[in-house]
From TrEMBL:
Name assigned to this protein: M-phase phosphoprotein 6 isoform X2
Region (Disordered) residue spans: 1-25, 140-176
Polar residues biased stretches: 10-25
InterPro entries assigned to the protein according to its UniProt record, in alphabetical order: MPP6
Pfam families, alphabetized: MPP6
Protein origin, superkingdom: Eukaryota
GO BP: any one term: maturation of 5.8S rRNA
Amino acid sequence: MILKNENRIKLNQGSPAPTDNSVTMASEKHKMKLSKSILEMKFMKRTKEKVDQQLFQTEGEEYFENQLTTRLKKESGQYLIEPSFVECEKLIEGRLSFQGMNPEVEKLLAAEDNEKRAKLEKLKEEISENQMVNHYKACNPTMRNRNKKRRTWVHPSERNGKQNSKKTRFMKPPDV
């Protein structure tokens, strides 16, 4: 038990020593608030600023605590939580049998393999050949148009608009 007497704290023998946190928490609970009229007086400006700053901090903490929890809830769908690393490492779970030592387990493993193969075949045939043909037929005209737009190489002198109308002929060298 804690007894206050003339700015001293005395402890009875049966009670544990108080921690700093417990004393400060008790003082925060019983802290009195100053009235608005007192805070508006000139000599209380600093105190008013401190009180406003404390209110702003507590409101901000409350606001961001709510934001943090909602943000975590929204983003929780992006991650999968696995209780074991077996799935992450793609390890085989359960019992195994080699060379016919346990035929029951081998039958179960064979059945699982057949199911996996069936799923893979369905995935492979998800886009049929007819759909692929139709898709490429639709794309073919755009490919042709893309090739039509390509320009042939033109000599830089002809780009300026100066085009020679006469073709150059082979001239005999003069006899000397």
